[in-house]
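Q&A log
Question type: sequence-to-structure
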Amino acid sequence: MLPLSVSELAEMPTFNSLEEIHLSQLLDRHRETSHQPDQVIVMEQDWGESLFLIRTGLAKVRTYSVDGDEVVMSLLGAGDIFGEMAALDRAARSADVVALTPLRLVKLRAAPFSALLTSQPGFALALARLEASRLRDLNQRFVLQSADATTRLLDALAYLARKSSAANDPQAAIPVLAQREIALLAGLARETASRTLSKLRTRGTVVAAEDGAYTIADLKPLVRRGLLPSV
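Response status: OK
Response body:
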């Protein structure tokens, strides 16, 4: 893959309000890296003055409960940035970021990023919208903690699909992941997630491709559960 260009950066929603000179400042001395599934990119309580942009792939933001249980806070897909809060407030990182699929990352310097947030209101607003969308996702998953297993699994699968799609499509193909990862995202035991997924496949709500990737074939159950707006 060729290095990220100014024109490619300009196509990403968070950065499309910036002029070419500003985009060039962001890419000044940037570095691109590749990572494999399960690789930890940043760790909670680490210190860092850089932030990261995902070019391709899917990652999870995780922490651990007081009992030592893994909690998945959010997902990150192509075009998402992470590490920006620690870079801006010079505090320790608040969570781990771990690759779920092969990742291609762009490491950006914090100084030009912070300067542009101060001088370019459109850029600051775009970042605020990104943070707001993450908060909405987290709020919905929190609300669903007491929901039945089917609702929680459908929400997790739709979330995976949307974050794997440039068009935010809940019916996009979901990357092949270990069922443990899907169960963690849904907040279910692995055995419960496996049984529920089997039921959804039997009903035709979810289908599997030959390579094992899942797709939500029928959105009506999600609409009935309030996970998607009615059309």
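Response note: The beta strands are 31-35, 40-42, 50-56, 59-64, 70-76, 81-82, 96-99, 103-109, 206-208, 214-216.
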